[in-house]
Amino acid sequence: MKIRLDRTVCDGFGVCAKHAPGYFSLDDWGYACLVGDGTVPDDDHDSVLRALLDCPVHAITEMGDRIPEAAHPFSSSAEDPAENVKTESNEAQWGFTR
């Protein structure tokens, strides 16, 4: 697991430092700082995830792997999603009422 802290969003509630003090510290004004590079080993996953979920302003995000192109719902292998857009020209097909 790898996390990222957006200090511009942080409002200084301090919940993250309470749940995972090994990964978050508070500066002189009470705003969170990330300790280390954001890499979290499996042993500490639960406490850091609790800090992430309890952050009231969602300043902490988990950085994950990109979705493979084939698994993406709008990948080039799937049909063109623009063909299914509801417009005035096909309103009878979609059952629009005015």
From TrEMBL:
Alphabetized UniProt keyword annotations: 3Fe-4S, Electron transport, Iron, Iron-sulfur, Metal-binding, Transport
Cofactor requirement: [3Fe-4S] cluster
Span list, region Disordered: 66-98
GO MF, one example: metal ion binding
Protein name: Ferredoxin-1
KW Phosphoprotein (keyword) present: no
Classification via InterPro entries: Fe-S_cluster_ET (IPR051269)
Organism of this sequence: Mycobacterium innocens
SUPFAM superfamilies noted in UniProt: 4Fe-4S ferredoxins
Domain of life: Bacteria
